[in-house]
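Shift notes (night). Ran L-aspartate dehydrogenase while the centrifuge was going.
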Amino acid sequence: MLNVAIIGCGAIAQSVMQGLDGRADIAVASVIVPADGQTAAREALAALAHPPAVHTALAQAARPDLLVECAGHGAIAEHVLPALEAGIACVVVSIGALSEPGLAERLADAAARGHTRVELLSGAIGGIDALAAGRLGGLDEVVYTGRKPPHAWQGTPAAERCVLAELTEATEIFAGSAREAAAAFPKNANVAATIALAGLGLEATTVRLIADPGVTDNVHHVRARGAFGEFELTMRGKPLASNPKTSSLTVYSVLRAIVNRAAALVI
Ligand SMILES: NC(=O)C1=CN([C@@H]2O[C@H](COP(=O)(O)OP(=O)(O)OC[C@H]3O[C@@H](n4cnc5c(N)ncnc54)[C@H](O)[C@@H]3O)[C@@H](O)[C@H]2O)C=CC1
Ligand SMILES: O=C([O-])CC(=O)C(=O)O
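Came back to this:
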């Protein structure tokens, strides 16, 4: 039985727990959310056959086999770093947090000290295997374009640049490096950071973000060129009803990572 703890109880975490509920080989024993989110989390989890306990932090004595972050950038330093130091294996989806200088090194050091490992999940994007393999031969150019409907950019710096609800044509709301994108759009540019960390790095990866009234999906486009050759990838992700910023593939990416931990043969 794989014993799992989950950080966050929002759109991704709730769907993940629904997907795992009732499995004989995996148990989600605890969920970690901030103090002001405890009641809402307990209410959201009440419908599960086996509702996990809700806490504000991993208990000192808790030794889950896997700690799963699906909460947001702040959760990495707050919960993932100490868990790694304590020897608990972690997987994370808020990859954009690693745009903060030094955080990737701190995660690696904490995992090394704890004799464990932290895995950055592919989340809403595919092709990370090809990009990371291509990097070993040398990459010349990686360009990422993220395109979402205007309402998915509400609450971001895009809302200061234009009236999102009145857009009639595709509008570029950001152009720059993956590091800048991930820092400025913590809920919308984790994919930019994932592509950068797998490929050319946070400075050299070129990012464009677009608010497009002509799409209903979250559209991710990657173009990569290097010694291996080149590839182009377009993903049209269905947004989660509970959070239009987040593509449903992110949920399946987390589920895959957890199920693989419990499996003897993985793909
Ligand atoms: N890698 C990828 O492709 C993607 C990554 N993400 C990341 O996943 C995060 C979560 O996404 P959703 O579930 O859609 O968001 P959401 O807003 O629906 O849920 C976030 C949950 O995390 C909790 N939370 C926030 N800060 C926390 C902290 N410091 N400690 C513990 N709990 C905390 C909130 O109370 C809430 O329950 C996003 O903020 C984003 O950073 C989202 C989409 C794609
Ligand atoms: O779920 C998505 O489509 C991607 C996303 O929000 C992100 O990159 O942060």
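The two ends are 20 Å apart (CA to CA). Residues 7-13, 32-34, 37, 70-75, 78-79, 93-96, 123-124, 186-187, 190-191, 194, 243, 246, 250 surround NAI (ligand 1) (CB under 6 Å).
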